[in-house]
TrEMBL record:
Signal peptide: none
Keyword Flavoprotein: yes
Name listed for the protein in its UniProt record: FAD-dependent oxidoreductase 2 FAD-binding domain-containing protein
Assigned keywords, A-Z: Flavoprotein, Oxidoreductase
Top-level taxon: Eukaryota
Taxonomic classification: Eukaryota, Fungi, Dikarya, Ascomycota, Pezizomycotina
Length: 134
């Protein structure tokens, strides 16, 4: 489902000359206005490099990211003990159990938390049984 959605968004973006597509960049922090403290942009860093760029937005910033499936620290903090079944309550969760992409590491969530943004339902999991084809 996620890959299909992203593929369609990419297709639509490529049809417009005024849309830039950046790959292999990660959010490092949200930029705040000195005037009212609102989010006015983002600082991004090229993966595997010290190169960073500030991107300023005039109409707002939308964070469209996955969750934190690949972040063990966050899984331990938010998911342990959240199972609905008494038989599995309190059991650990492990990143290797997830087929989510490596980028699903809670980066945007942490950036929002650093500036005091709210969050909800971090102990909720959307999952389906899967297996890796041997």
């Amino acid at each position: 489902m996620g890959r299909s959605l992203v593929a369609q968004l990419l297709k639509v973006c490529k049809e417009h000359d005024n849309v830039e597509i950046w790959t292999r960049w990660e959010l490092s922090e949200l930029l705040l206005s000195g005037h009212d403290g609102g989010v006015i942009g983002a600082r991004v860093q090229r993966r595997g490099s010290d190169e960073s760029v500030d991107i300023h937005a005039s109409l707002g910033v939308i964070l469209t990211t996955g969750g934190f499936s690949q972040n063990q620290e966050m899984r331990d903090a938010y998911l342990t003990g959240t199972a609905t079944s008494e038989a599995t309550s309190g059991m650990p969760t492990k990143t290797e159990w997830s087929l989510a992409s490596d980028g699903d590491a809670g980066i945007a969530l942490r950036a929002g938390q650093r500036i005091g943004a709210g969050s909800a339902q971090l102990g909720q999991v959307w999952g389906i049984p899967t297996m890796i084809d041997p």
